[in-house]
Amino acid sequence: MTTAQEQRRAPQEPAPAAPVTPGRRVTAALGAPVRALREAPRRPLAIATAVALFSLLTYATVRHFVGTSMVDMIVYRAEGAAVAKGQDLYGLRVTEWNLPATYPPFAAMLFVPTTWFGIGFLRVAITVGNVGLLALLAHLSFKLVGWPRRDLRAVGVVLVAGLGVWLEPVFTTLRYGQINLALACLVLWDLTRPDGRRSKGIAIGIAAGIKLTPGLFAVYLLITGRIKAAFVAGATFLGTFLLGALILPDATWGFWTKYLYDSSRVGKTEIVDNQSISGAVARLLHTAHPGAVATAVAALVAIAGLATAAWAFRSARWLPRADAWGVCCAAVTAVLISPISWTHHWIWCVPVLVLLAAEAAHERSRPAAVRRLRWRLIFAATLLAFLSFGMWLVPHKGDLDLHLSPLAQLPAGVYPLTGLCFLLVAALRIRSRRRAAGAPLIRLPRQRTSAGVAEPLRQR
């Protein structure tokens, strides 16, 4: 046998794998949507696309006749202009409602590019961009939940992007030109990455630097034992503060020492637009200043919500989709306890609905003899809540928010009620799964027995 033949027949060593560089990761991420569409079954994808296009066309028609002020987009553009021109950021007032800047200086710096375009162009670009972000949020939600199977996820993303515009929080986000979808995508992108990534937490820190509420997800990372990621998020947030202080020192000083604590700049607590615990308490008590009562209730909800989120994450051995339950509990808690949570802040309904849909699909796949309707009813009720526009159906012009009847309180506070019910359902779900597996509901400190051997106490 010749040397050439021997070389051809000799076993070949595998070629070394190419190093995974940031450039390769970006290329793979950009190509992922195309690959997903190619792998999706053709007929379901075609039907989903037709349904989504019809829905978006109908939405565009309704939007045209209803009118969309996109007032928040106008405020963002004015903030960017104030930064670019060196004007007083927190002294500006724009639109017929005299709206001020309410975000940290770092956010205003990011809005500078909006000044390069006219209002008309921005209306179209931000609407299209938000629909794209809705699709991305759906993709990240499916990834978080681990449902449906990979080849069907593109179909799900198309349906959510087309039909999700009718969810009231999404509808209002598009109507006002808000940035909630972008912030949710930053947070979910971070939370769906492997815990071993050194940069995990950066996106959460950036989101908190733009709008403070996402900072609660750093707390969620901390209490679930992902300490490094929590500190990365905190350090990134600190970096946004330092960048703002370096470029806009006066605005930074004013925001963190004065304007942050002036709730009148954000809006009235008692109006139905505010779907937080504080807003619900204010309407129940018929007062514009719920004070200590609202603070106490919000504190209790914060403790219960974060405890449930951590309990879900630490129950991964027994609870399917444990991380998804934990993230959704943390998200719902963040929106509930914020002093002001406008209806469009509740875009976290998207991952919540995806999670409940996954539970309902699993329930439906069980044998008929043991099949129940529980999760399908919970999913339907939650979906109805976010499609209802209930808070806008009650009398709320002028000071009527302070004089709502007991019957009107339910639709006026539909999101806080739904959020509290979700936390309760999550706690019952965790408890049920742990009981079924014979696992301890909680693990108490170790105690020495009479024989001198340490044993963990278990509470069933």
Automatic annotation (TrEMBL):
Compartments where found: Cell membrane
InterPro entries named among the record's database cross-references: GT87 (IPR018584)
GO molecular function per UniProt: hexosyltransferase activity
This protein's UniProt keywords: Cell membrane, Glycosyltransferase, Membrane, Transferase, Transmembrane, Transmembrane helix
Main EC class the enzyme belongs to: transferase
One cellular component term from this protein's GO annotations in UniProt: plasma membrane
Chain intervals for the UniProt region annotation (Disordered): 1-22
Pfam families on file: GT87 (PF09594)
Membrane spanning stretches: 45-66, 116-140, 152-171, 202-223, 230-248, 292-313, 373-393, 413-430
Keyword field contains Glycosyltransferase: yes
Membrane topology classification: Multi-pass membrane protein
The enzyme's E.C. designation: 2.4.1.-
Family to which this protein belongs: Belongs to the glycosyltransferase 87 family.
Name listed for the protein in its UniProt record: Alpha-1,2-mannosyltransferase
Originating organism: Kitasatospora gansuensis
